[in-house]
Design goal:
Elements lengths: L18 E2 L6 E12 L2 E12 L3 E5 L6 H7 L10 E9 L2 E2 L7 H7 E4 L10 H11 L6 H11 L3 H4 L12 H13 L5 E5 L7 H14 L4 E5 L3 H7 L2 E10 L4 E11 H6 L4 H7 L5
Helix pairs in contact: 3-4, 3-6, 4-6, 6-7
Amino acid sequence: MTAQETKPGIRLDTAEHAVERRPAGELVFDVQDLSVYYGEFRAVREISMSIAQNQITALIGPSGCGKTTMLRCFNRMNDLIETARVEGKILYHGVDLYEKSVDPVEVRRRIGMVFQKPNPFPKSIYDNVAFGPKIAGFKGNMDDLVEQSLQKAALWDEVKSRLKESATGLSGGQQQRLCIARCVAVEPDVILMDEPCSALDPIATGKVEDLMQDIKDEYTIVIVTHNMQQAARVSDMTAFFTAEVNEEQDRRTGVLVEYDKTERIFTNPTDERTENYVTGRFG
């Protein structure tokens, strides 16, 4: 996949069901009329949005509105679900991620993911960070790479004297930052974060949020969060999703309501549904 060799085109139209402002800067993702199905059930409907390089984009909305499904589309994690299928396009630097010629393993190397619950491997701190580069055939100085990755994750000073100790002995917040170090060790272009602070205390949450700000000059970050204050603190752009409820089948289909600069979403949203959600009237 020659992701860096093409530039994304600019679409001027927006989906009828959403208010979309295109972010400034070079686009990393251009999502065009994306729908995701699990079997016959459509979990996400006709999403169109674009994500710019070196920005933090937050996906917010009530439970069941398709935020995580949308996030997992960016690195083809939904491919791992047998019944899942995708319609529409996600262009990554102009390359359609779902073209048959695109290798999903390479996609996941370029587009890393940090999950809701810290999931360090049952290995040493050092081996957690070194695991991905070893698999990818890294030929450089592994000690330097591990140190650099832990520094980027703001964890080096806390663990440098115990790199051979088990990663499972770290605190929850340290484990999550280790997972971020493990992610950046393979030199991704994008980092996806699915509720990365939901299992953390406020102090650890603050450290992860500070880390996101520190590394966004090097990476494009997309975060799913239920914490609206967190979205307001860390993100440049915010997408608000909601769910269309089919009462007969007891199913919810996610739709994008509004996508704009974070400040505007939280102070002067265009859609009444967005205003009701961010002011706590529903959700």
